[in-house]
């Protein structure tokens, strides 16, 4: 967002009330590492190549730049909308036209796949 756009979002933004679940305080049951529904069973070999190791995912939580981006209420709403959407792939294509979402995606990618240093002479 531009500064005026962000201000407009901030002024008009009303937080959505949180819905209480029947099992208050309990999230979804953890998926077992092995067995029915295990991540390894769901991912194909092609998907496995795109999988980001847990170690690199943890770097996302340590990034100040990413945390600063996530303070933007408009970005947070985009992410919530995407998370709750039925057709995530078409919505993702649409969101990739949003400069704020592209900035977020680029930030995430730069953390998990840092650009290789080009044209660096060995010492």
TrEMBL record:
<feature type="domain" description="Zinc finger HIT">
    <location>
        <begin position="55"/>
        <end position="112"/>
    </location>
</feature>
<feature type="region of interest" description="Disordered">
    <location>
        <begin position="11"/>
        <end position="50"/>
    </location>
</feature>
<protein>
    <submittedName>
        <fullName>ZNHI3 protein</fullName>
    </submittedName>
</protein>
<feature type="compositionally biased region" description="Basic and acidic residues">
    <location>
        <begin position="11"/>
        <end position="23"/>
    </location>
</feature>
<dbReference type="Pfam" id="PF21373">
    <property type="entry name" value="ZNHIT3_C"/>
</dbReference>
<dbReference type="InterPro" id="IPR048371">
    <property type="entry name" value="ZNHIT3_C"/>
</dbReference>
């Amino acid at each position: 967002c531009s500064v005026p756009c962000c201000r407009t979002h901030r002024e008009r933004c009303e937080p959505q009330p949180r819905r209480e679940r029947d099992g208050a305080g309990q999230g979804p049951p953890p998926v077992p590492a092995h067995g029915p529904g295990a991540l390894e069973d769901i991912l194909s070999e092609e998907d496995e190549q795109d999988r980001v190791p847990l170690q690199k995912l943890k770097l996302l939580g340590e990034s100040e730049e990413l945390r600063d981006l996530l303070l933007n209420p408009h970005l947070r709403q985009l992410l919530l909308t995407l998370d709750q959407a039925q057709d995530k792939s078409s919505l993702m294509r649409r969101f990739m036209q949003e400069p704020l979402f592209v900035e977020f995606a680029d930030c995430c990618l730069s953390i998990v796949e840092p650009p290789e240093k080009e044209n660096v002479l060995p010492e």
